[in-house]
Amino acid sequence: MKHLRFLQSAFFAVAFVVCCPLIASAEQLKIFQGDVSNPVSLSPGNELIVETDFDIRESAIANPGIADTGLNSATAARLIGKTEGRTTLTLFDAEGTVRHVEVSVAPNARNTATVTAPSMPNAQRVSVSSAGTSNAPVYDNGAIVIETDEPFVTLQFDDHSIAYGTALSDRRIYILGKHLGTTTLTLLRDAPTDSTAITIEVIEYED
User: Are 91 and 117 in contact (CB under 8 A)?
Assistant: First the structure.
């Protein structure tokens, strides 16, 4: 009798595991964006040195028609204002650190020779829905970095005229906002059902 009760208990335990599997945790995204309320400013034709507290491997500007960039030293990037507008300077180091510096080019800007790169705000955390979808905003002519806790194989943008990006690793994507509108970024994985569709909305900077 005890043996029968043990078998019954074991059966119900197995049935519970089969019928009620553990719910997998949702994929988590981190969205890294600069502080748009605190841009560095310079006027067209002027140059500005942006100093950091780390060695810069590469600097990139979201819209090179508004400003240009290059390395000035191991820990400083050079900005040159070209035409009026807002854009994003992104600084990368060899360890994966990303620092976004929001840039404002305007005729009446107060020009200074050197500034320190502002600290990055905490990353925005977003959960992917059970349907494998999420969304992320990026400013027109700006840039963000999205990091996922689930590695992907490759990525695909539906409309490159609105936003475009490149994989920094199998978990990080550098994204540029090109024109106002929305498009879909799909993170493709080995199993199609595991892919993630992220709606990228390109929005205007607020004055």
Answer: yes
Q: Measuring CA to CA, which residue among 69, 75, 112 is closest to residue 87?
A: 69
- Taking only the tens of pLDDT, the chain with its 207 residues reads 444 343 344 434 434 344 444 445 689 999 999 988 889 999 999 999 999 988 999 999 999 999 999 999 999 999 999 999 999 999 998 887 889 999 999 998 888 889 998 777 778 898 888 778 888 999 999 999 999 999 999 999 999 999 999 999 999 999 999 999 999 999 999 988 889 999 999 999 876
What pTM value is reported for the model? 0.82
Nearest of 79, 77, 32, 31 to residue 54 by alpha carbon: 77
Could you tell me the residue ranges of all domains in the chain?
28-32+121-203, 40-116
| CA distances in angstroms from 192 to 82, 150, 186, 203, listed in the order given | 44, 14, 11, 30
Locate 110 and state its tokens: 């107060």
Distance, CA of 40 to CA of 140 (rounded, Å): 17
CATH class of 28-32+121-203: mainly beta
- Say if residue 14 is exposed, middle or buried (CB neighbours under 10 Å; 0-12, 13-18, 19+): exposed
